[in-house]
Amino acid sequence: MQSDYKIFLALPLLFLFQQKLFAQQFEAHSIQYKDFSTGQTKIETTTFEFDSTSFTMHMGEMNVYFGLVDMTIAGGNRNYRLLDRNDDTVYVSFNPRAKYIDYRLRTYYLRYMLDKIKEIKPEVIDTSPPPVDSLGNEIIKEDTTIYEEADVMPEFPGGKGEMINYFSTNIRIPKEATKNKVKGFVKLMAVVEKDGTLTNILVMNDIGSGCGTEAVRVVKTMPAWNPGENKGESVRVRVQMMVGFMPK
Question: N or C terminus of the chain: which is more exposed, having fewer CB within 10 Å?
């Protein structure tokens, strides 16, 4: 296998959530990858900065710059065709909701586990006068952004242990799940609003037999969370939850 930097050369472009016409900028962080040719998992901390036409990879003292050939969207996957600096074609598949990417270079098949993906917002200086109300007081515009991370992350009252107890107490195992001996975890995503209520509840991974529907029902009955905060102000934050179904 060639030097390690070639393995990573195309990865940042996997996180483009729009077509090439949109010049969004992102930063991504990978902590390890699995080599399916050997079955080994390797640790390699790498940071990427990229937009819709180019990207930079930072690994130790090395900075490498590359460009995108093309991208197609199939279902929830983004499929990329890329070139390394030796003009070798690299194929990568990425789902924005998943925390991994699949990478193929000739006979190499690697899966990278990600611990951080965020959009870099360009700084825009607004020189227009602030809006005012009828009394001449400045109107403060509400921040409605949904954040993936916050200075203080949202938390179920009492913490993770109490959330697990809440699920254990309130989950009703569907009859179909018991009949089919279905066991496992349903993965959910939701937005914790500024007042702690949960909205935008989505099933990311369902184990079937009615478990996904039951997980959503229980999450909707949750008490208000402690909301997330940025700079001391409450903000909307996206969170993930695992709801267990373990019939006896």
Answer: C
Lowest mean pLDDT among 11-25, 56-70, 143-157, 185-199: 11-25
Number of Cβ within 10 Å of residue 183's Cβ equals 13
Range of the domain at 170: 146-245
Neighbours of 11 (CB within 10 A): 27
Q: Are residues 192 and 104 in the same domain?
A: no
DSSP string, 33-84: EEETTTTEEEEEEEEEEE-SSEEEEEETTEEEEEEEEEEEEETTEEEEEEE-
- State the CB neighbour count (10 A cutoff) for residue 182: 17
| CATH number of domain containing 74 | 2.40.128
Tokens coding 26: 């992102």
| 108 and 174 together in one domain | no
- Which pTM does this prediction carry? 0.47
- The first and second tokens of residue 61, run together, are 């003292």
Beta carbons of 199 and 146 less than 8 angstroms apart: no
